[in-house]
Amino acid sequence: MSWIDRSLGSISVSQISPQEYEKIRERSGLLTILGVEYKADLSDINELMELGRGAFGVVRKAQFKKTKTLMAVKIIPITGNAESNKRTVMDMDVIMRSHNCPHIVRCYGCFVSDSEVRICMELMSMCLDKLLKIALRFPEAIVGKITTCVLLALNYLKETEQIMHRDVKPSNILIDNSGSIKLCDFGIAGQLIDSRRALTNTKGCVAYLAPERVGSSESEYGIRADVWSLGITLVELSTGRHPYEGCSTDFELLAKINNDPAPRLEPSELYSKNFCAFIAKCLMKRSLDRPNYDELLLLLGCSVAFLLTVITRK
To answer: What is the pTM of this model?
Structure first.
């Protein structure tokens, strides 16, 4: 019995059916690079160095020998933990379906076995969390570009894949040497059950949770929870400090999110009035008072209809 069989019940909760998983597994070893499909095995991948590791696995820089293509390979062990396995399958499913969006990290393919999953992705330079430690803070113009790219990615997920991300934060936003900004890590993404709500039983990083996700036993909430997470991210990128960084425990953090006034930026020589107002709209305590993705893109001066035609071009 494979791990997919053992974890079947949990995977169906994440809206990944056994049939969808089998489609992913059937494509194991198929890499698509610059529109050309290659049949590969692990011996065709030359691992170069470790890029990072976390609770769910390790990421290594590697090269596909046949094309000399550099890539990031995310290696995730398969365990007896159904929740972890569910996250792995969700990440694979979303990233492999989102190849038409230039603001979502591209997936070349994957290798699936009963012991581990290897997801081969385009190589980015670093995440914004690490870059922020170097830059200390980002100027408003740069944060504006980041905001646009992240919103386009979130809007694509909602409109094209009926998915909300649920874990928007600087460490899940990547940048490459050309300045391209891309969203990654879809392991806890939730399937939208209508235009407003996502069905979920997994929380993202506590420090970026929206008030409606704090202390609630309900498993349904909407895309505006991601808008709050984006707002917190923008404050952090603009100031170099997380607005709740003084909290010493998760309990204190959750209490502040739930009970304190929302974080704000005040207009100054660093932050324009419009920029501060944009963040304030993202961080309205009542979810229905927050704009949706389309409204936020329009506030940024973007034509959503035009942008959607751009991001779906191959």
So the answer is: 0.81
198: alpha, beta or left? (left if phi > 0; alpha if psi -120 to 50): beta
Catalytic residues: 167
261 and 146 share one domain: yes
Per-residue pLDDT tens digits for 118-133 = 999 999 999 999 999 9
For residue 194, the enclosing domain spans 126-311
Residues 116 and 131 in one domain: no
Q: Which two tokens stand for residue 283?
A: 């961080």
Would the annotation count 130 as a binding residue? no
Burial code (b: 16+ CB inside 10 Å, e: under 16) for 204-229 equals beebbbbbbbbeeeeeebbbbbbbbb
Tokens of 197: 């709500």
Number of domains within the chain? 2
Among 64, 90, 122, where does a domain finish? 122
Tens of pLDDT, residue by residue over 250-266, are 889 999 999 999 999 99
Structure-token pair, residue 158 = 């909602």
Banded pLDDT at 82 (limits 50, 70, 90)? low
Examine the fold and report which residue of 107, 122, 137 is the final residue of a domain before the chain moves on: 122
